[in-house]
Amino acid sequence: MKTAMKTTKTERVTSSAISTLRRTAPSLALLLLVTCAAPIAAYADAGGIPKAVANLQAAVATVQTQVVTLQSANTNLESALAALQTRIASLESANTALRNAVTALQAKDSSQDSALTALQTKDVSHDSRLASLQTQLQGIVSPESFQAGASQVGIPSDFSEHLIVKLDLPAGKYVVVVKGSLGLISGGDDGYSDFSLQGPGGIYDGLRVGIVDDFGANETTVSLMSNISLATPNTISVTGLTSYDGMRVRDFKLIAIRVGSLH
Fold first, then answer.
1. Which residues pair with 98 in a beta bridge?
2. CA nearest 180: which of 134, 233, 222, 237?
């Protein structure tokens, strides 16, 4: 019985509380709304977006910009790296070519050293032979030469000998050589000329030359040669005579070479 009464009392209290809550609920809800809305408004901008969210969005935008910048820098870095790798490959190729060239030069230098050694050996051999020849030639007098010349001499047709060139020589033994040209002066007649190499011993060598006026082909060579021995200083000469007018000689050379002995 007591239990039933307690239950009924409890139900009454509960019902009363519920009725009271129903009456005051709107007021409580309004109070709660006002109390909570104030802090939210304090952290919101004019658009109603919380400032923390706006700041976060700005930070995200900044990061995105930085990412784009970094991606561009990375692309440039990759391009520079590729160019550097290409340059390295080119330098390695040039280095290989340089090494090959150095190797070739070293081989060539070795070959040249061998050739130089051979030449030096050959030069020593030649020096030895030269020294031997110099020993053998000791006491032999070196050849000495004397020379005279005549550029141009006309020969009259009087059948007399006329001096062309002469040469004074000291005593000694000589090989004498004479060379010159004989020709017709323009308008001359065909004919012949006699030439003689003379000295204290008489005529050493002689030559008769015939020549024909052949419209320009009217010149021939005169050559004389002999061994001459002079006991004392003396003179040798070349003379000439001709049978016709218009003969002339030019570029005559009289050369005497002193020798050790005549055979």
1. none
2. 222
In this prediction, residue 139 has a pLDDT band, given cuts at 50, 70 and 90, of very low
Cβ(259)–Cβ(174) below 8 Å: yes
Q: How many whole angstroms separate alpha carbon 43 and alpha carbon 50? A: 5
Q: What is the mean pLDDT of residues 61-74?
A: 89
Among 217, 216, 210, which residue's Cα sits nearest to residue 247? 210
CB 205 within 8 A of CB 179: no
Q: Are 185 and 249 in contact (CB under 8 A)?
A: no
- Is the separation of the CB atoms in 255 and 150 below 8 Å? no
d(CA 213, CA 187): 8
Rounded CA gap, 233 and 198, in Å?
A: 15
Q: CB of 191 within 8 A of CB of 243?
A: yes
Q: In what order do the strands lie in the sheet with 172-184?
A: 144-155, 247-259, 172-184, 219-230
For position 256, what pLDDT does the model report?
Answer: 94
Which residue type does 174 have?
A: Y
Going from the C-alpha of 130 to that of each of 82, 116, 123, 198, 260, the distances in angstroms are 70, 20, 10, 40, 21
What tokens appear for 216 in the block? 């320009």
Question: What is d(CA 198, CA 236) in angstroms, rounded to the nearest whole number?
Answer: 6
Distance from C-alpha of 127 to C-alpha of 118, rounded to nearest angstrom: 14
The whole-chain average pLDDT of the chain stands at: 77
User: What separation, in Å, do the N-terminal and C-terminal C-alpha atoms of the chain show?
Assistant: 190
Residue 48 CA, chain-centre distance (Å), reads 84
How many CA atoms are closer than 13 Å to the CA of 209, on its beta-carbon side?
24
Residue 242's pLDDT is 84
